[in-house]
Structures are given as C-alpha cells and as structure tokens.
Amino acid sequence: MRAARVTRLDGPDAVEVAEVDEPARDGVVVEVHAAGVAFPDALLTRGLYQYRPEPPFVLGAEIAGVVRSAPDAARVRPGDRVVGLTMLTGGMAEIAVLPPDRVFKLPDNVSFESGAGVLFNDLTVYFALSVRGRLQTGETVLVHGAAGGIGTSALRLASVLGASRVIAVVSTEEKAQIATAAGATDVVLAEGFKDAAKELTGGRGVDIVVDPVGGDRFTDSLRSLAPGGRLLVIGFTGGDIPTVKVNRLLLNNIDVVGVGWGAWAGTHPGALTEQWAALEQLLASGKLSPPEPVVYPLEEAAAAIASLENRSAKGKVVLRVRD
C-alpha cells in the first residue's frame, strides 16, 4: 500500500510517500479515502512530540473511509462509511487498522474529506467548550488562530453550542474572510485584539477564550476576560509556552483551564463514544456544517504538513488518499 512516512527527524521535508506492507494486526480494517493532518504531525516529523516513535513510521491520527473487515463485537460492519482515530500514527495510508472503540459511522451527508477533518478538531473543541469551558447559552467566545483547524472548528461549534457572539482573532485580512465564512460574528486583528474585544463587549470582556496559539498573546487574553471568564489552553502553535501570574486569576475570578482531549479520552472510558454521538447528531441534522478542508493529494503530504508548521494553512488540512 502507499503511505506517507517519516524517514528521518528533519521536519516535514523528511516525509516520503512510498510502498509499505499493509498493517497486520487485529482490529477494524479500513480502506482509507482521506486522512486528516494535525499539528502533532508536524511535531512528530522533528521528534518534538511527547510520543517519539523511531523512524521510519507512518503519520496520521484521523481517517475516513470504508470498512473492509471488522471483529464481530465491533459497532461497524464491512461496507460501512466510517471515521476513525489511530490517535497518532498509521492513518496516512491506503489501509489502516483501528481499535473498534475508535471507529464511528460517518453520516451520509458528510464527505470522506470533510469526515477526515472532523475528529481531532471538532472533538477537541466540543470537549473544550462543553466540558472544560462550561459554555453557557448567551455567552461570548473569543477564538485565537481563528483561520486554522482548531480555530475554524471553534467558530463552527461555538454558536451551535449556545454562544451568542463569536469573536475571531486573525493575523491578516485574508484570514478574516476565512473566519467569517466559518461562522465568526466579529473579526479582529491580533494586533490590539484585547482592546477590540473590550469595545465589542461594551467593556465587559469575553466569557471564554479559545487559545491554541499561546505565546505573547496570553497575558492580553487574560485581560480580555469578563469576571468569571475562562481561558482554554489547547496548544502552543505560536511556539512559546507562556506562564501566568496567578494574582491575575484572583482579581476577576477567572480561570486558566487545560484542555487535554487525548489525555481525557484515554482515562475516561466511553468519552469518545459519547462525544461522537453528540457531534454525529449535530452533523446529521444539519445543525453543524461539516468543515470545508484544504485538500492535498497523498503525494503532497510533506507540503500539507509544512503548511501547519509555517502557519500558512487556511482551515483544516486533509490528504486525499484514494479517489
């Protein structure tokens, strides 16, 4: 089978598409049509992720395709359209084998390419807003990195989950158009976002900040919160991991909340199934629109991963594995 694999830890340029043996292990065997690309893929190419497999290894944590075979106890059957999670490696290939509890039926109204862009980002954001962020109806959400994968997911989901206002923070006017299309009610530039958010909320501030960026925006994110607000720490695509002076938390009774979706899923049996059931209902009903990812052919896996590392990606990035 064809697969995108890391041959050396030199960054995305070290990703090669080659013929490799099909995986030979027990589980649900899926003929992969599309595979999602996520920021951990970029980190894995440099050996910078907390999980460090030895090269060569196949990248890819999320897939969409058709079941070839499944154990009798699985919830899916041969021929089913599905999405699934390898969680970290093995997805960017024509065949993937997944544990039965990480494979879910894909609604008929969602394409394979959109489906491959749903799991990592939408499950993370759903968990962030509903579980860790305790989003309440009528609250205001501010989203950093709003034109990226997590950002566009947050823009799509926040209003569906009850937010009355969703403020997107972007770095360029071009990315502002992407954020608006994804569902932002307001768009502000990263430079001066705190003052802009305060003005938009009549000086009160926002209830939730979704932050997959980190870096030097962190302090102003805290300052942009309303009393009782929550800053959701999802990642550090900005590079630097910020620190917090905890006296700031006392002044306005605000929270800094870690969002470790993978860690939560690994320690809470049934969490993935419960979260997917909620998302599937929203997607199948049309209340939540599926993502419209940027699609690369499998042969351009290196470029797709590089677009996340250099922050040129506009929305979710997906590989088309087979037509």
Please outline what is shown here.
Keywords: Oxidoreductase. By secondary structure, this protein is α/β, with parallel strands linked by helices. It has helices at 39-44, 112-116, 119-132, 149-160, 173-182, 193-200, 218-223, 247-252, 261-267, 271-285, 301-309, and strands at residues 2-6, 15-19, 28-37, 57-58, 62-69, 81-85, 95-98, 103-105, 140-143, 165-170, 186-189, 206-211, 225-233, 255-258, 294-297, 317-320.
Protein traits:
globular; 323 residues; alpha/beta; 30% helix; seven-stranded mixed beta sheet; six-stranded parallel beta sheet; Quinone Oxidoreductase, Chain A, domain 1; Rossmann fold; 2 domains
Provide an overview of this structure.
The chain is 30% helix and 26% strand. The chain is α/β, with parallel strands linked by helices and 323 residues long. The chain folds into 2 domains: 2-117 and 291-320, Quinone Oxidoreductase, Chain A, domain 1; 121-262, NAD(P)-binding Rossmann-like Domain (Rossmann fold, 3-Layer(aba) Sandwich), CATH 3.40.50.720. Strands 3, 5, 6, 7, 8, 15 and 16 form a 7-stranded mixed sheet that branches. A 6-stranded parallel sheet has the order 11-10-9-12-13-14, sandwiched between helices. Helix 3 (119-132) crosses helix 10 (271-285). It starts with a strand and ends with a strand. Its EC number is 1.6.5.5. Residues 7-319 form the Enoyl reductase (ER) domain. GO terms for molecular function: quinone reductase (NADPH) activity.
